[in-house]
Amino acid sequence: MKELEKKQKIINYSRTFEKDKFSPIRSGNISIKHKRGNLEGFLISPSGKKNVELKTNDIVFVTMTGEAEKNKKPSSEWRFHLDLYKSCKCNAIVHAHSKFSVICSCLFKEIPSFHYMIALIEAKSIKVAKYALFGSKNLSKNILDAIKNSKSCLISNHGQITIGESIETAYELAEEVELLCEYYYRCKIYKEPKRISKKEMNMVLEKILKYKTN
Ligand SMILES: [Zn+2]
């Protein structure tokens, strides 16, 4: 895919952030892995701009050594995008401050296997990364710990992250995670929801992974 096409996708999905207030105003960021000539890196939304006002020229290329292109400012949270590309197999990352992911990230340390669709993230629960200052190395480390062997995690007192083979799959998963957080939050108001056993969750995981590869 050409650079311009990827930039356009980042813009389109950033606009979708604003729709239904999924990740409102200037919050959240999106990146897509990219190779510029021989330089490996990724394209990412810029720092501090309103999601609905982004233009292709605002999107920033950052190399895998963490250097951003001149006169442009990548999202202040670019570091965890870099570290995720280095340690996970993925081509796109969506980070959103979606309402119920934020609420659950403030209340819980984990979203357990209360619903079989948790397996969409390819794990039995959604972990919550420990709190650290946004954009910091520590936060990046906490995120890597929490997302290990899965496709998503929440970030304590902050929001959610999903990774995917494409921006389409990463974004769709972010929407699924948001819904799961809403269901969990609403269940918890009433009482502790029933859990699905490890054995049953393993069966779901197997079926979902098979379904994905077919
Ligand atoms: Zn954030």
Describe, in plain words, how this protein is organized in 3D.
- This protein has 214 residues and is an alpha+beta fold.
- The protein has a single domain (3-213), classed as L-fuculose-1-phosphate Aldolase (3-Layer(aba) Sandwich), CATH 3.40.225.
- It contains six helices and eight strands.
- It has helices spanning 3-18, 78-87, 99-107, 137-147, 167-190, 198-213; strands at 29-36, 39-44, 60-63, 92-96, 110-111, 126-129, 152-155, 159-164.
- An eight-stranded mixed β-sheet has the order 3-2-1-4-8-7-6-5, sandwiched between helices.
- Helix 2 (78-87) packs across helix 4 (137-147) and helix 3 (99-107) packs across helix 5.
- The longest helix is centred in the last third of the chain and has 24 residues, at 167-190.
- It starts with a helix and ends with a helix.
- The model has no long low-confidence stretch (mean pLDDT 96).
- The chain binds zinc ion (ZN).
- Zinc ion (ZN) is lined by residues 77, 95, 97, 134, 158-159.
- Zinc ion binds at residues 77, 95, 97, 134, 158-159.
